[in-house]
Amino acid sequence: MSAFRSMYLGLILIATGWINFAVTQAAAADTSQYFDVGTTIDGVYLLDPATYAVAQPGPDLEPTAEGWAPITLMDLDRGLSGRHFLIRFSATNTSPEPRSFVFAHDLAFLDTMDVRMVSTTGETRTRTISNSEPFSSRPVSFPGLAYRSTVAPGEVQDFTLRIGMDTTRRMNIGIKLWDSDSFEFYEAIHQLKFSSISIVLGTMSVLWLIFSIIMKQKSFAYYSGYLFFLSLSMFIFYGFAYQFVFPDYPWIQKLGFQGPVLAAMSCALMFSTSYLSLTDHAPWAHRANVSAAALLAIGAVYGIFGGSLQVTVPLLMASLFVPLWLWFCSLLIIRRIRSLSVLLFCAAWGTMGLTAAVLALHIAFKFLPNDWTSTSNYDAITIASLVEVSILTVSVALSIRLLQRERDTANVAATVDPLTGLLNRRGFQQTVDAILQIPAQGRWSLALLDLDHFKVINDTFGHGAGDQVLVDFAELLRDSRQEQDMVCRMGGEEFAILFDASSCTDALAHCERLRARFADNPTIVDDQVIHHRVSIGLASHDCTVAGAISLDLMLRQADEALYRAKRSGRNRVVQSEEDDLPKPDVVLELRLGAKSKEATIEKV
Q: The domain 425-580 is classified under which CATH number: 3.40.50.10580, 3.30.70.270, 3.40.50.410, 3.40.430.10?
């Protein structure tokens, strides 16, 4: 039963194909149809049955002996060509009022358009429009070549166009017809859509350049370059650079978009090399990327400075495989680095690479729907570029977050003691110095705590037990601290606490409680009871009265007090004395006539 269904389906498809072919041939044979500009015409392609074209025009806008052939959507794309083509069509106005219409080539890179119009009123007009003339002198203000005509009621105008490229480039013969109102709306939307895309990409390139400077990451600089040249190539390709930036210098526009595209692909290769760390994970891919990037960079400079299209165009076609290659590289790396940023990187280049590959196969084999034109190709590439950039931006943002997290981890590792989790001397210095330099911040006390006979504990119970004693002591200090207190392991068995106390008596009592708790709570390791003691030196400073003070100064005072605690028998708290305080400077004023000099002498 399924075989019969397949046979019926095949017969239906064959019959449909023959019917479409017969209708097409009948329409092509009817040359009496006209485009009616008396109605709304909104971007209609000049196609059969009213339109015909010839591949090799003769002189004076006449066809060669081969004659006219009908245009179909499949015939719009003429591939790489340096030839010119003739197109003819007729327009009539069935409305009671004069109607104006516009026909325009759907790309901004057509080099020439020769127009000849013959009217039933006997009027004949000719006009040559070229990309070599200043933008202000064009008959229609539009990035592509366009022409405007007005048809009187009942008038028929027969047009013959000669369009083509001056050099071998990608060519299509797509001419669209609009009434004037529809064209003005289309022109505004066209400008808004593609100029906005270019501006957004350009703005993103500036932002990522700033990020690259702040984060000191060259991969972000390459990404910024990729966005910038991609934005520039779109701005030139769609003709907006010619229209808005240098309208009176058409030779700049004629340099083409090939150079910026090659530069964008070169930056993409270097960005991927750095972003994926190919030097470490795939050295052979790194070497290939650097070599290809250098070649494309040379081609970009050559193209930007007006190099031959016979060189830049083939190089441009080869560069379209770069996204597919980068997708392949990311597939290799994702097996080694399983992260969301690399996965998104892979998805971004896969989107762009597969789109380019599908379009390349379509150009070769014409397998997309019949209404798919060259303009559709460029629109698809533009959309794929936007999707790719959006995904890449998320990927790079995630990598920034990961990089910042790694830097934060490194900063923590540099300022935190790994055994106890307390601040180390460096972190303590950075945090406490900032606090002590602020005047009127209350009365601060600094305690230096040194575990008594710690070497004996290590020698008797082992270093693992000694580490456990340090961890228990750190936990005791952490549990006893208030919110604003700073606790630090200075190194070895020495710790420090900066805390706020209302008086020297309160500070002394706080340290005494710490000493007693540590002595009363021995550490138990493998059923072994380890008794321990601690000596504490205490220094206090009232910032509200004496002003700011440095940490080093308070450390010297507390260290002297700790030294006295050890000399006097250990396991005790000793408050710094007046002799431990810094000696005030003596200022001598020497008066010599009207002049005076100051000399500062520090007593030791």
A: 3.30.70.270
